[in-house]
Fold:
Amino acid sequence: MATAERINTTATMVAHMAPSRSTTPDQLARLIDVHLGDLREEQPNWMLAPSPVAGRGVFATRNIAAGELIFRERALVVGPTARKGSQLNTCVCCHRLLASKHFLCPHRCTLPVCAECADSTAHRNECEHFQRWLPKDLTAAEEAPSKEQSKGEAEGEAPKEPLGDVVNPLSLRILTAVRVFYLSKEQRALVDAMQANAERGYRQEIIKAAQCFRKFPTTDKPFMDQLFRVVGVLNTNAFEAPCRVDKHETLLRGLFPLTAIMNHECTPNASHYFENGRLAVVRAARDIPKGGEITTTYTKILWSNLTRGIFLKMTKYFVCNCDRCNDNSENGTYLSALFCREQGCKGLVIPVQTKTLQPDWRCLSCENVFPHAKMARYQDFALNTINNRINTCSVRDMIHFINELCPRFCPPSNYVLIEAKLNVIWRMTRLGAEEYTPEELAHKDRYREEILAILHKLGAGECTLKKLITEEIQ
Ligand SMILES: C[S@@+](CC[C@H](N)C(=O)[O-])C[C@H]1O[C@@H](n2cnc3c(N)ncnc32)[C@H](O)[C@@H]1O
Structure:
């Protein structure tokens, strides 16, 4: 993050974030060029232009071959995702894992930070900023022991272990938005030129964060409006980028503006991945002709039509109209398929209509039609049963479950079962091959071939998942 001029009042912050919704395509292109800096190619194979899909998009300036690099981009801003279950005792600057107790900033901004970063210029602005908002100190309990604790100790009980530091994920998550206010003027202009979906849930994120502080400027309307927009931009555009420091893996909330301007396609022609949470790399997954829109995916590629549709509607607020979404066989992969509920028939049942999230379902064998509610309950059952096993079973038991029990209630093409196979492959790779029997390793190879065949049917080309499966998972 650029260390911009110091900002001491919310009024100054708002002035710096003055809206510039009318950013022209040329201005946007210039802001992106400045942001790319030394990573901007002399003659890029991409350009920005209005998209027939939505808003602005990224387009090929010449034919691009599958596998070719399209661009690399550093994050404009990153921060903790502070997801449920993540290790919150991770330094917000260098992302190292900290001690499990006493890991908050010594300057009492209540952010988890390592001793080195606590006094760094990278942390100074946000530290002072959080201090000004007066965090409700969650460690107070440690300094002022409860009445019962003091009583117990007075009566000769061994002193209780100090409670240690506690982080509120809601205040931690707002950090990325706060960091946006400290970007340079041009960087903030770029943030302001980005799409921000207006969603009530995003406001909740701020309202809940505000409750973590005694002096959050909730009555400062211009500031709050800017904050709502920044959080809207983050939620519309930011990625969750994995980052590994030493052996500690964490997910960062990163804004990569050029990568974000790419529109979504369910089987995209480009793939992106992140290097240590701070660098996005975008490559062509298939050949892209000159003038073609370069697309990425906002969903998992192996999800069924309905699952992707619901996810996009709920989190990105649009209905996808790509070729894959309009084909109820899903390129012959039948990722949505469930077994027929009719006595004696074990045919495959698939959604009939494609442009609705509540389709009728029809059996490909007996042609009976089932209401969506019934099939949705069945899909939920399969999902919960399989995910429950994934979370509780050893790999060995999972292989047995997939091969012997799943076929009784879930067609082998169903995406939940495919994802379970991917999970097995992934876990076996992480644990190392020597722990498994040749038979178990053969199952892993078979799962891998099945998934590669599905990716081939989908026309996914050199997508990130294929790269992972063929190169890293061996
Ligand atoms: C990260 S932005 C993509 C860039 C955006 N087109 C722009 O002009 O800044 C994501 C938003 O773009 C729109 N979008 C992206 N892909 C789409 C698609 N396939 N169909 C409809 N809308 C899409 C949706 O409004 C979505 O919330």
